[in-house]
Write a structure and sequence with these properties.
By secondary structure, this protein is mainly beta. The chain contains one helix and nine strands, in the order ββββαβββββ. Strands 1, 2, 3, 4, 5, 6, 7, 8 and 9 form a nine-stranded antiparallel sheet that branches. It is elongated, with a radius of gyration of 17 Å. It starts with 12 loop residues before the first strand and ends with a strand.
Length: 181
């Protein structure tokens, strides 16, 4: 979310996250022996980028709970059930920034936001890297970001099978966002 010099305005700009070219992937230990990996679908999202002051930038993202996919149909059904994500009652997982700060170098940010899973909201911190900027053939400016974080699933009352499944969920996010010209 950190704008580079090629943006010609100092005014905040609105960017739309492209769900078809963005991913949210996760990994968690099972039985302390192997790692289960999966993904969940971004439904919609937007970024507001402020090149004059990155602290005024923001992001909102909505994920679809029922889209969880680990490559195992039985496990996915169990993760959608009430003991885990309760996707029927809580079809969306939401993230909204509360704070954006410069990161360790010019292409990184430290983004804090409220993550809501089921009926629980907690702050999480994302380490965000701006990967690239380019223009699409239709003239839209395109920005690419990656982010990493880890959350404790028990903090969000996703607490079934505590002895079989680890607590720490590692999350890797890749976002493509466009800004119409």
């Amino acid at each position: 979310m950190k704008p580079r010099e090629q943006i010609t305005t100092d005014a905040p700009t609105l960017w739309a996250i492209d769900p078809t070219h963005s991913t949210v992937e996760f990994a968690i230990k099972k039985l302390f022996l192997f790692t289960v990996k999966g993904s969940i679908t971004i439904v919609e999202g937007s970024l507001v980028l402020d090149p004059a002051d990155v602290r005024r930038s923001s992001a909102t993202v909505v994920l679809q709970s029922a889209s969880i996919d680990t490559g195992n149909r039985g496990r996915d059904d169990q993760l959608r059930a009430a003991k885990f994500l309760d996707a029927d009652r809580y079809p969306e997982i939401r993230f909204k920034t509360t704070k954006v700060e410069p990161g360790t170098d010019r292409d990184t940010l430290r983004v804090t936001g409220s993550l809501t899973v089921k009926d629980t909201t907690r702050d999480v911190v994302l380490d965000v890297s701006e990967i690239d900027r380019s223009r699409s053939p239709s003239g839209e400016e395109v920005a690419y970001y990656s982010a990493l974080t880890a959350i404790d699933r028990l903090d969000f009352h996703v607490d079934a099978l505590r002895l079989l499944i680890g607590r720490q969920l590692k999350i890797m996010i890749n976002v493509q966002a466009t800004r119409p010209t």
